[in-house]
Amino acid sequence: MYTVATLLYPDALATSVTLPMEILQAASQMASVGARSTPQVNMLLAGPTQELITLASGLTLLPDRAYGELPPLDLLLLPAIWRNPLPTVNAMRPWLEKLRQFASAGTRICSVGTGSYLLAEAGLLAGQPATTHWNYFEQFAGRYPAVELKTRHLITQSGNIYCVGSVNSIADLMVHISEEWFGSRIARAVENQFSPEIRRSFRAAAYQNEADSSHHDEIIIEAQQWLREHLGQPVTMEQLAGHLDITPRTLNRRFRQAAGINPQAYLQRLRINHARELLKHSNLGVGEIAWQLGLQDASYFSQLFRKHCGISPLRYREAVRGKLFKPDA
Asked: Is residue 326 part of a domain?
C-alpha cells in the first residue's frame, strides 16, 4: 500500500487538494479489484493541528494528522497557495525542517503552482530545475536566484522533487504516478474517467534532470532510440538484439533492469502514444494508423489500444475531439 499525504494551510487552493487525491483514489479503487478489494492507497490530510481548517475558498476540511505526526510517506503533496504565497511561506517556516527530512528519506514531493515556494524556502530547489505559477515567475526568480526556473515547462523533476505550474498539470502528474504504481491499463482508465484530453504525456510536458527512463545503460538507451526510429516498421526483438550485437536474452534482462519493462512492452507503449496523437490530430482510419505503427492487422491494433487505454480507437477519437468547436455550416 502507498501512503500519500496532502498538507493543508489556510490559503491552499481547494482544487489542488481535491483533484490529485481523487485521481489517486480512483486508481486505488481500480487496482483493488485485483487485490481482493484491499485499498492500494492510504490518503491523509495534514494540518497544523487536527482541528478543522477553513481554506480561503470557504471550504472547511478536517485533517487526519498534524504535520508532526505524519508517518513515512510515498508521496507528499503541497497545494497551490491562493494569491500572494509569502504569508503562507512565513507561517509554514517552523515545518520546513520536517519537509527536508521527508525529502532526505526519499519521499516523492510534489508542489502545485506557488506551493513550490515552500520547496525553495526549504532549500530543496537550490541548483535544481523548478517551475511555479506563471504570474509569480518574476517574484520567484528574484527571491530564489539559485533555482533554475523553467518558465517553458509546466512540470519539472529533479530526483524525488516535482513542481507543476497549474492544477491541470498536477492531474497530468497524478496520471503518470498512477501508471508507475499500477500500470498503464489503470492509468488510462483513470485518465478516461476524468477526461481523456486532460493531459499531455508526462515525458512530453516535463523537464527532467535525468536521461530517458532515468537510467544510464548506454546499450539500452541505444535500443530505445532504435525502437523510436523504427516505430513504423514491423520489427522483432531478435532484429534489435542483432543490431546491438547482444543476445535476445541479454537484451531482455538489461532492458528490464534499466527501464523497468521489457523491450516489447516499451515498443507497445511507443505505438500507443503515437496512435493517440494520430487519432487526436489526423483523420486517418484505424487500418491506416495500424499500418503507420508497423502493425498489419487493424483488429490486433484495436485490441492492443483497448487493452492500454480502456476504450476503442474510435471512441477515443470521439472523446478527445468532443470539445472542439465547429463552424456553422
From this structure: no
* Residues 221 and 171 occupy one common structural domain: no
Indicate the pTM of the whole model: 0.69
Which domain, by its residues, includes 44? 2-208
Full 3-state SS string of the chain? CEEEEEECCCCECHHHHHHHHHHHHHHHHHHHHHHCCCCCEEEEEEECCCCCEECCCCCEECCCEEHHHCCCCCEEEECCECCCCHHHHHHCHHHHHHHHHHHHCCCEEEEEHHHHHHHHHCCCCCCCEECCCHHHHHHHHHHCCCCEECCCCCEEEECCEEEECCHHHHHHHHHHHHHHHHCHHHHHHHHHHHCCCCCCCHHHHEEECCCHHHCCCHHHHHHHHHHHHCCCCCCCHHHHHHHHCCCHHHHHHHHHHHHCCCHHHHHHHHHHHHHHHHHHHCCCCHHHHHHHCCCCCHHHHHHHHHHHHCCCHHHHHHHHHCCCCCCCC
- 144 and 52 assigned to the same domain: yes
Does residue 328 lie within any of the structural domains? Answer: no
How does pLDDT run along the chain (329 residues), one tens digit per residue?
A: 999 999 999 999 999 999 999 999 999 999 988 656 788 999 999 999 999 999 988 899 999 999 999 999 999 999 999 999 999 999 999 999 999 999 999 999 999 999 999 999 999 999 999 999 999 999 999 999 999 999 988 899 999 999 999 888 898 899 999 989 998 888 888 888 886 554 556 665 666 554 444 567 889 999 999 998 898 888 899 999 999 999 999 999 999 888 888 999 999 989 998 898 899 888 899 999 999 998 989 999 999 998 888 789 998 888 777 644 434 43
**134 and 16, same structural domain?**
yes
Give yes or no: residues 48 and 180 share one domain: yes
